[in-house]
Amino acid sequence: MTARARTPKNQDELLEYRLSLRLGPVHARQRLGIEREYEAQVFGQGSSFHLENVTAAPGLISFCLKLAGLFRRGQANSRRLDTAHNRFILPTLPAAFEGFRILHLTDLHVDMDEANLQAVLKKIEPLEYDLCVLTGDYRKLTWGPVDGALDGMSRLRDAIRGEAYAVLGNHDSIRMVPGLEDMGYVLLMNEMLPVEHQGEKIYLAGVDDAHYYKVHNLHRAGDDIPIDGVSVLLSHTPEIWHEAAHAGYDVFLCGHTHGGQICLPGGIPVTLDSDCPRHLGRGYWQANGMQGYTSPGSGTSVVNVRLNCPPEVTIHTLTRGPQ
């Protein structure tokens, strides 16, 4: 028996073995290796890639907002979610999918603020939809324990009706995959699944995080989609918009930017933490025939405050246009 196929001897080996079976050994080794290296840097006071990993950052930002008299308002804003409605006009959409509704949730950071999670659960409860998709960032931090995030995601799964398809974001550990899948989330890790409705199909693809881990693979996710099939791609970040558009995807759903979260009056983001044009930072957009939507997300990061950028859950409706 080779070393790669040996029987796992401890919890870490068991996890790596299960992930290797699920994702393939290269993907599992790459993602786990980068996570371990990064966590060693965080705990060793090395380099970091997110503001929340600067120990003083949340307190400093909160202090400045309180000094300006904006903290309480911003916190209340973060718990007051909108339901946004968007239409994708797809002339080749199969007739059975006319009016098909997709509930889009992203950047939930479920262990960040219990009041926000409760607001999400309350907001989605009365909504009507045919399918739910989630585009990453379920954990508060980019490192450390996953139990709090998994607990919140379990409660969310209980509130979601029907199938729930998900991808991981840069805040999410690959260690969360078995737990999320055991809850009933369908993780799309550079994978595609056909979605059947009344005897016809569209194709739902999803890629692993393209922002920090760079483990996305659009080819692997999309190679088996028929050339004339309508495709929907889930990505945590909009940063791969250009390559996705040229790969031929019809619809691109993402998050990551939080729409800026703390914006200037008029919703002008101070930063989007994303290497993409600013017009892709929030809402509907188009590129090379592909239609996209960047949700500002339901949760918050660093501090549970939003200014001039309300959180949302999104209902996307697929249509062939005027009949």
Automatic annotation (TrEMBL):
Gene3D superfamilies: 3.60.21.10. GO terms for molecular function: metal ion binding; UDP-2,3-diacylglucosamine hydrolase activity. GO terms for cellular component: membrane. Pfam families: Metallophos. Keywords: Hydrolase, Metal-binding. Transmembrane segments: none annotated. It comes from the Bacteria. One of its GO terms (biological process) is lipid A biosynthetic process. Residues 100-259 form the Calcineurin-like phosphoesterase domain. InterPro entries: Calcineurin-like_PHP, Metallo-depent_PP-like, Metallophosphoesterase_sf. This is Metallophosphoesterase.
